[in-house]
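Input sequence (643 aa), recorded before submission:
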Amino acid sequence: MKEYFLYVDEKTIGPLPQDEIEAKIKSGEFDQDVLIAAEGDEEWKPAKEVLGVRRGVRLSRKTAAEEQEMRAARQEKLDPDIRKKLMRYNLADAISVDKFSPEQAQKAVEIYEKNVARQKYTKIGVGVLSFLVAFGIVFSILQNVKLSGVYRGLLAPITELMKAPNPDYPAQARSITREIADLEQVRADAKNAEFKQITGKDPRQTFLQRVEIPNEERQILSATVDVSGFIKLAVPEGVEIGDVEIFFAPKVSSGSRKALQEEIDMLQLLKTPLWSDAVLSQKAMEELSAAMPQPDGVSKYTRALLDRLSNLHAASVKDEPAHWVEMLSSQIRFQDSSGRLYLPAELERLKTREPSRELLNTINSPTTKKMIEDLPKDNSMKTAFMNWALRMMPEFLDKFQKFIDDNKIYYSQEARDAAWNELKAKNAATIEKEFAVTPETEFFGLDPNGHFSIFRNNSKGLAVRFKVGNETVMLPAPFEVQGETGSVPVVTVEDIEIKRVTNEDILPTERYKIVEKTAVGGEPYYLKGKLLSRTIDVIRYSPVINYIEVDKVTPSASKRNLKPVILLVEDPAEFEAMQVGQEIPIDKLLTMQMVTGKKDTTPMSPTKLQKLPKDKAEALAAKKAAEAAAGKEPEAGTDEDED
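Predicted structure, token format:
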């Protein structure tokens, strides 16, 4: 009875006898569309077409979704063209062809076609060279060829080509499948081979041993500086404070301290907001309303002036006294329409508000008194007005002007700027001379917590420098000013400590540069594979190890023979960015491992990897360089197969 193979769930089952297959289909164990093929068949066919059997009761417990999944899986077959080529080239039959993975099938076809092409070109070359010589002989022989007892003459080559297909192709296909599987295992072995790791040690101790401490740096001063008192006292909200730095200056004298006190007082004043028009008018009323002369008979004039005083504007207040003088002059002319009391000298006094003995004598002269006394009785109000305007108001206008002059810094930004510039100009020479800041003066920054640590054996002359907006402020540390409630600290210094310097203290300041950079590794190793009697070298490169050598920027003062330190650079991009001569911060160097030599890596034992012979390695390197220069990728299926 004939036997068939079955293709179920991407697996080949069998062979099974025909009756057993029919029974399983009828019982529902197999679908009537299950693919079957007898040995020698070129393709799989549904059982219902080959055996004519129909499915009976379905016994399978698979759900519809599972059936759909199985059908979808069966559809995930090889590319039809690749599948046909495998069977056409006698690399597989209908049973074995589906054992190939897509990658294996593609590889087998490519290798076969390349070999065929090579053989074709070889045959063509040999044929062309020998054709003319052998044609006569071949023609003569072909006329006498006897095949199967029959003389066929020139038809002999054609009959030879019409031979039956190779009966050994199933065995060949199985052999190729095994070779492909073996080659994939070789690839996996090459890929999974481990290389020895290059390990180093922490370089801190080595760098510490290279530290040299100059005599002038045998002690270290550390402390914490706080300028928050100054900021709170004298810095307006929203004004930026520059980085606080410390430096050392001669002892600050009492004269400089007084100048600094004036500056802080001025800054404290400038911190307050400018007076608004309402505040300006309120302050003027509080200070001047009681001083306004209000004799009998002039109330309507004083009310008008008080009303004007209560509605001052900061932008124009400086012109108010002059306006008042003009108003009074106009009223005086009106009141003295007869011309008897209009005395130019007295009006001039009103305008200048600078009394003199001569002017006072004129006003108090018997002639003037007599003129006033000779006025008609109905001119008493006029007399009162003239007395108020010419004798009382000039004194009030002087007080008004003084109020404006004394308070302009409170309501005028222009006045504030002028006052600050005047104070700075006055004190600049004293303060700069006291602090003696020169281009050679060394400044030290503070960390975010206000802490500093420098090589110094005392804190004498400690001072701070920082910016408030566009202004540079320098103050001794510590420093206090006198306020309304007593002494106010504006700069404080705490936790002052002086200790002997150690190598660990000096280490962060050490400077090193790269004197050499080297990349080691990338050597080719290989495992041998085989496919269709052809040897394939599967290449695996050793890891690339990057080294830098660093040395001190400044030579050793003690003339010690210090060799450069060799360090591992793990990040390839970081190594690529490094340049010989570049300075590398010591804190960065301390994160790298130190080694005693620039070692290469080799495969860990046991391993099948072997070092590629020198001639092959050089040829491979030249080929890779040429491909890289041309911007090409290595061709698949070449003799050197890189992983």
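Checked by second reader. Residues 57-61, 132-156, 635-643 have pLDDT under 50 and may be disordered.
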